[in-house]
Amino acid sequence: MNRGLTALKIVVQICLFTIVFSNTVFSQAKQDLAGSKDHPLIKRFSESVIEFYKETKFGTYKLPVNAEGKLEFGKPKELTGKITRIQYSASKESNPEFVLANYKKAFTDSGFTVLTAIANEQLGVGKRSQDWKEKYYDAGGYWKGINNGKFGLGIKIPSWKDKQSFIACSGNIEGVDIYVAVYTIDNGAYTLITQDIIEAGAAKTGLVSINKKAFTAAIKTTKGAAAQAKPDVAGSKDHPLIGRFKGSAIEFYQETQWGTYRLPIADGKLNFKKPQALEGKITRIQYTTSAENNPEFLLSNYKKAFKDSGFKALIALANEQLGVGRRSQDWKEKYYDTGGYWNGINNGRFGLGIQIPREKSKQSFIAGSGNVDGVDVFITVYAIENGKSTLITQDVIEVGAAKTGLVTLDKISKGLALKGHIAIYDIYFDTGKHTIKTGSGAALKIIASYLNTHKDVKFFIVGHTDNAGNYAGNVTLSKNRAETVMGILVTKYSVSPHQLRAEGVASLCPVASNARESGRKMNRRVEIVLQ
After folding, report:
1. Under DSSP, is residue 376 helix (H, G, I), strand (E, B) or coil?
2. What is the CA 467 to chain-centroid distance, rounded?
3. In degrees to the nearest 10, what's the CA dihedral of 427, 433, 436, 437?
4. Least confident of 4-18, 35-49, 383-397
5. pLDDT digits (tens, 9 = 90+) for 269-297
6. Lowest mean pLDDT among 42-46, 205-209, 474-478, 485-489
7. 0.70 exceeded by the pTM?
8. Which helix (H) or strand (E) covers residue 361, if one does?
9. What are the angstrom distances between the C-alpha of 177 and each of 40, 57, 195, 201, 219?
10. Phi and psi dihedrals of 528, rounded to 5?
C-alpha cells in the first residue's frame, strides 16, 4: 500500500474508531459475512458487522450531487472505476444522524472534500425511504432511478422509514481520484450502513488481445487455432484473431461457414429496425468467467483490445444504455430471437449453447470492425451476469469469407460445355448494393483468364437475386451487378467489351427454395452464359 493511502487510512480509522467508541457501547451480535473485509482506506463504524460485501472491478457509478452540494438525480456525475460496496449493521442506538456526524468529521479530518451531508427530510423523500431506494438504487420505475443497486444489495433498503442520512466525499491518493458515498437508515432492529468506495479509472485492462498475425496465418494455412485443453467444451478453440478473456472457459462453439448476420448499429447507435446485413463466415464462442469479472469490466478490456489492434469500436454500451432496463430477456428477444413482441433480428440462429438469462440488469455489448489482409472482419461481444458466473457471447464475422476455390478454369470450361452456363458464387456484394466487395478478385481473375483464351466466343453476364424485396428493384439490382462485373472484366482484366453483354433476371431463375436462408444464398449469384 502506498504511503499516501496508509496515512489517510490511519487518520480515517482513528477518527471513526475514537469518536464512535466513546459514544456507543453494545456487543457485536454476529460475525462478519464469510469472505468479507473492510476496505483498506476506511475502517468500519465501531462495533458494526459486515452483512454484505462485493467488489466490482469496473463499473459506472452515478453520484447525484452537483457543484453546490445539492442532490441532482437528473444529471448525476458518472464515475467509472472499481466499486467496493460493504453493508454494515450497527446498533439501533447509533441512529443515521449520529453515523453521519462521525463520517463527516472523519472525512474532514482526513483532508477529503465533503460534497454533501444530509439527513432525514433533507433527502427529499419524506417518510418514504422507498423513494430514496427507487431514485438511488433502482432503475426505471416511477423515479427512473440511477441504478446504483447494480453493485449489489445483500440487505434491501426498507420501504417506510424516515430516519436516514447520506454523505458523499472525494479525495485523491497517489493520483487516483477516490469517492466515498455512505447511506444510513434505521432498519427496525438495527441501523443499516451502505458504504460505497469508488476508485475512479482503476480498471485493469490487457485481459483480451487481438492477434492479426495469427488470423492471417490461419487464413493462409486454413488450419485455424489449436484446440484448448479442458475445461473447454470438446472440439472448441479460440478464434485465431481474438484471444479469450483471461481465465475464461469455452462452454459453446459453433462455426457457420456462410450466413447473414444482422448488426443493429447505425451512426454509433442501436438501430434494430434497419440492421446492417453482414454476409460471410460466423464463428460464435460462448465463454464463462468468474462473476467478479462483471460485464462493464469486460467491456473496458474489449474496448482497449480493439483500440490497441487498430479495430474501430462501432458501439460500446453497458447496463441501461442497452435500452432494455432490468430485463435482459428483452435484449435476447431483440438481438437473438425472431418474431414475438420485439420482432427480433434472429442472430440466435448461429447457436446459443447457453441461453441468455432473464431479468438481469448487468450486461454490456461492444461491436468493432477492421480489415485483415483484405478481409473485412466484425466482432461483437455481449456479456451478462449469469448467477455465479459471467457469460460472454463472442461473434466473429468474416465478411465474404465463404470457402474459395469454387471457381477454376476447368470448372468454367466443363460447366459451359455441359450446360451452357455456370454459376459463380465467389463474387461478393453488400446486401442491396452492386459495388463488388473485397475478396472477389481471385474469381474475377480466373473468369477473365478463361474469357481471354476464348476471344471468339460471346457470353452473357447474368445477375441473379433471391426474392427478398420487391421484384422491380431486384431486376435493377441484378442487372447493375452484372454490369459491374462486366465493367471490371473489361477495364481491369482487358476482356473485350464486344465479347460480353450484361443482363439481370432478379429471382426468375432460382436454383433452390427461397423459403430458407441456405436456398436464398444459392440463388444470389452471377452466371456466365453462352450467347
Report:
1. strand
2. 33
3. -90
4. 4-18
5. 999 999 999 988 899 999 999 998 999 99
6. 205-209
7. no
8. none
9. 15, 15, 17, 8, 46
10. -100, 125
